[in-house]
TrEMBL record:
Sequence ranges assigned to domain GH18 in this UniProt record: 59-316
Gene3D superfamilies: Glycosidases (3.20.20.80)
Protein name, entry field: Glycosyl hydrolase family 18 (Putative chitinase)
InterPro entries according to UniProt: Endoglyc_H, GH, Glyco_hydro18_cat, Glyco_hydro_18_chit_AS
Amino acid sequence: MKNTKSSLKMVAVSTTAIVLMLLSSCKKESSQNATAIAPGSAATGQAVPNALLIAKTGPKGVCYVEVNSNDLRNVGKYTLSTGGQQLFDIAIIFAANINYNTSTKKAVLFFNPQVTNVLNNKATYIQSLQSKGIKVLLSILGNHQGAGISNFPNQAAAQAFAQQLSDAVTTYGLDGIDFDDEYADYGTNGTGQPNSSSFVYLVTALRQLMPGKIISFYYYGPAASRLSYNGVTVGSKVDYSWNANYGTYSVPNVPGLAKSNLGPAAIDIASTSSSTANSLATQTVSNNYGIYLYYNLTNNDSHTYLSGISQALHGSATTYTP
């Protein structure tokens, strides 16, 4: 489980293949207008357009960064040694909070100074990753004040908070929202306990507000057992869900999500052993799941550790470019 913030194969590209692509002038467009490092160029840092790259295969890499103490831009420093594609596909800012206004009795989106710095300097932290093809999400979790994603008292309250989230995504140019049902301390400040409708109402409203954006669910907490209400399922509204217990392999039970949208393997880069992390990566590929979850990417160079994982996931070691 993450710490609280508030106190939180691919086929090798041969030189011949690259030459053939250049001679034929056949550009392979990716869905992202990114710049990547071609094979053999990482040592020099020379950037080449990703028209020279073929699409990365294997599970998507999702990476949480504790921005209180680490730089979000670290996510963009890791590429596949063979192919040059980014190791991580999604970066998650950990984390913003759900606070509770005791006067208005409403949930309020809250950013601490470090999160505020990342968001206000979006060109530096967010757009720099997006320019590499990495999606950037904002994680939302409780803050020990009684408010969380599982206890909105009615549909209107859930819709009001969804509007706050959508506004933040628009204001800061984010690619979506990640929900994490931790640290709410339900019942504090006279708030209600988790109910069956809250999370469904919230993701339904948010999907309506931002149909083209990503919504993900960190499979944990009361919300994990409250995924359907009045025939509407959370799985029909969110894009991805992943296991929340680091060093383990457990498939999130989110009806409506295909294997390609689920991540049963989760690691803490700072504490999960290499052998465990590599084994979980192998298991993810063998079972055809589409997500591998990394937590706690720090400011240290972790490419040696990550190389074992990327070999299993993508058939390549990892290169670190400061």
